[in-house]
Amino acid sequence: MYSFHRIFCATPFELDAEWRVFHDTLSEFNEAASMPRGILLVPVSLANMTDKRPMQALIDENIRDCRYYLLVHTGRWGPNERNFQYDYHYAMDCLANPSLPMAEVVTLYRAPVKYIPVEPVSPDMPVPNAEFSSPAEFRQLLWDLFTRWLASFPA
Question: pTM score > 0.90 for this model?
Fold first, then answer.
């Protein structure tokens, strides 16, 4: 029997590769570290959804049920159809509510890539907990984060 802990991972359109790295890394981490302890970290994210606005109530419910919220971004909230500004602030409200399971909200920033035009960073973006510039760096950040979270659970 496993105890389940949900992680909401918010990624804008341009970070589809990071979305895949998140899922792959979490799967590997569960197999190597979480499952032997009877714990399963469950990914929650938006897959192939071009316009999340009609599903916002369901997204809110998912965020409310999560123990962790992870925002991976490039300095912008995203277009209206897939904007994570409200979701991030909603997760922060969940974190402030002791009756909800939210234990931490983390933001990771992907540094600009040479071949992708750089757009101005939104002035209201949260200060990132960490920055990465390659899939390998992102994977290592995730592994370290998952390790820290797993260590916080009672044996």
Answer: yes
